[in-house]
Amino acid sequence: MLFYFSGTGNSLYTAGKIAEEDNEQIFSIPELMEANRYEFTLKPGEKVGFVFPTYFYGVPTIIADFIEKLKLNDVQGHYVYVVLTCGTTTGNAAEMFEKLMKKQGVTVSAKYGIVMVDNYVSLFPLPGKDEQKICLDNADRQIADIKQKIAAEDAGDFNPAKGTLHRFGTFILYPYYKYGRKTKKFHVNDSCSGCGICETICPVKAIRIVDNKPVWEKETCIICLACLHRCPKAAIDYKNTTVKSGRYVNPNTDWNKERV
């Protein structure tokens, strides 16, 4: 079984590629949480995988919340792995994940990391199309190597993307994410059509359409920026830094109004 979370499709694409040959069952973490489904019983020989992006060199809060309630029956002796996607480096996110799983009595067998298109446009402008293609082609090669290691149940740290001084980077930057996820920084321009896609795809149900405009009802969210990137009118911005920064959805995914 394979659990994933994805804001713009990079982790969804990665999870799909990993699962495609073995017909691995894929679960959307936000959908599981909405259904209040946290308990799973493993079949003999079944692998358990997690694929998600790293935020500020750390684990998205939705992942931590999910794992806190997760119960994997008969997991002892099974191959458990995590694949982290990132725009630059994963920092100490793999170790953070490992500690969260250990609290649930689960040992992580292998840790992987993949650099994909950096789309955190509140800080950085989106790379150009040519640069995106190079990045995604490189990611495909990394995914192919990861699939081989998973099939062989190789154990260890296979994450070349964690960067230098990864623990220090997470220590410095992650608190900005953990304590700074304020939805008041989102705003909507007049091109909004009130289509409701943002409300549908928000993984933590922070958005509601009021008078044909999105309203962020929760004080914080996970800042996945799915609402911003997947708005068909590019009507949503975060702070004042994303107006001209571009929008991104992994070109190899086609999710339309699907949940993240």
Structure description:
32% of the residues lie in helices and 18% in strands. It is globular, with a radius of gyration of 18 Å. The chain has 260 residues and is of the alpha/beta class. The mean pLDDT is 93. The protein starts with a strand and ends in a 22-residue tail after the last strand. It folds into two domains: 2-177, 3-Layer(aba) Sandwich (Rossmann fold), CATH 3.40.50.360; 183-238, Alpha-Beta Plaits (2-Layer Sandwich), CATH 3.30.70. The longest helix has 23 residues, at 129-151. A six-stranded parallel sheet has the order 2-1-4-6-7-8, sandwiched between helices. The protein contains eight helices and twelve strands.
Defining key terms:
260 residues; alpha/beta; 32% helix; Rossmann fold; Alpha-Beta Plaits; 6-stranded parallel sheet
Task: Write a concise synopsis of the structure shown.
By secondary structure, the protein is α/β, with parallel strands linked by helices. The chain is built from eight helices and twelve strands.
